[in-house]
UniProtKB/TrEMBL annotation:
This is Ciliary neurotrophic factor receptor subunit alpha. Residues 1-21 form the signal peptide. Residues 332-342 have a biased composition (Basic and acidic residues). One of its GO terms (molecular function) is cytokine receptor activity.
Length: 378
């Protein structure tokens, strides 16, 4: 009896789980991919053909050109504007029975692929892109063949449309064949490319390019750089370099090719003119030139002008009286010559003479007044 009850409980629980899963599926929606420009039919769950339903897209009534046949919604010549979340409801109570996420797109076309080795002799990478958009998720499958065997392919962690392959051997005479297939829900398309090892070697541009003026040389610039950090074995696989430079006032470049050197002195620069300078790199034996490095700007040494002091400036100093009197200045009186000199009498000044005369006049006045008084008393 206990086993029977347990079995019944398990059956009921399973039914509940299935019903819950179906309900979740209806709420989450199922994805339907359709080709752009085609006619599309969407089925409302598993309802019978005579069921009466209504449809909404993104929560509103369907307004695009459509046709209803029982539980089916038919759209004609769909485009990107038909993308959306479609929900169907069974009448008359309006219970939601199904949800469909409609994506409109196109099948992929043959992708474009290029392969390059910037880490020679370690390996190479291939990158690709679609020539036309598909509007729906598209994946890519890569297969690399060399000497009748498949090579391991590693997807790039940063670039989604890139993969890396290690060279199974160096200086191989066997070509490499890469097959790339683009796949989405509406179809697939493939492209194939073949190449020899030596034809895909292309270093990255040189790094840390600098240009410095040379003191006291108005027509020289010293340029230096470093080999690309991605080049793994510069000693056994040396690089040569190509330098180009021009003044900003001209469009024509001047070029210098250098072997196994990471510096160069430009000796024919225009004095005082700003220059733009770039460097490229290449394996000394095989491959092609890298892209140009980031441009740097520099101007040859310019002599600083000498500071000149103006001759019109006047130094103002304190004026002092000259100890030598001028010819028009009054001279100091000298001692008189004659009697006064014999008795060593002091010199008589005009003021002293005036005072003596006044005293004498005063005395004479008093004498005259006394005489008058005596005459009157008689």
């Amino acid at each position: 009896m206990a086993n029977l009850v347990t079995s019944l409980c398990c059956v009921v629980l399973a039914a509940v789980v299935v019903a819950y899963a179906q309900r979740r599926s209806q709420l989450a929606g199922r994805v339907q991919y359709e080709r752009m420009g085609s006619d599309v039919t969407m089925q409302c769950g598993s309802l019978d053909n005579d069921a009466s339903v209504s449809w909404k897209v993104n929560g509103t009534d369907v307004k695009a050109q459509h046709h209803l046949e029982g539980p089916r919604l038919m759209l004609t010549q769909v485009g990107l504007g038909h993308n959306g979340l479609y929900s169907c409801f069974q009448n008359p109570h309006g219970e939601r029975r199904d949800t469909i996420i409609l994506h409109i797109g196109i099948p992929p076309r043959e992708p474009t692929i290029t392969c390059r080795s910037n880490t020679y002799p370690k390996g190479f990478y291939c990158s690709w892109h679609q020539t036309h958009p598909t509007y729906i998720p598209t994946t890519f499958e890569v297969d690399v063949q060399h000497n009748q065997r498949s090579l391991e392919v590693q997807k790039d962690p940063v670039h989604k449309n890139r993969c890396h392959v290690r060279f199974p051997e160096v200086f191989s005479s066997y070509p490499y064949t890469v097959n790339l297939t683009a796949v989405n829900a509406l179809g697939k398309a493939s492209t194939t490319t073949s190449f020899e090892e030596s034809n895909i070697v292309k270093p990255d541009p040189p790094e840390r390019v600098t240009a410095t003026p040379i003191r006291y040389n108005a027509r020289r610039l010293e340029v230096s750089w470093q080999s690309p950090a991605t080049w793994p074995d510069i000693d056994n696989f040396p690089l040569k370099y190509f330098l180009r430079y021009r003044p900003l006032i001209r469009e024509q470049w001047q070029h210098v090719e250098l072997s196994d050197s990471t510096s160069h002195i430009i000796t024919d620069a225009y004095a005082g003119k700003e220059y733009i300078i770039q460097v490229a790199a290449k394996d000394t034996e095989i491959g092609t030139w890298s892209d140009w490095s980031v441009a740097v700007h520099a101007t040859p040494w310019i002599e600083e002008p000498v500071q000149i002091t103006s001759t019109t400036e006047v130094d103002f100093t304190e004026t002092k009286t000259s100890p030598i009197p001028s010819s028009n200045a009054p001279q100091k009186a000298e001692h008189p010559v004659g009697r006064a000199a014999k008795d060593n009498s002091p010199a008589v000044t005009p003021v002293a003479c005036w005072w003596q005369q006044r005293t004498a006049d005063h005395q004479n006045y008093h004498k005259t007044q006394q005489k008058k008084k005596k005459h009157r008393s008689r």
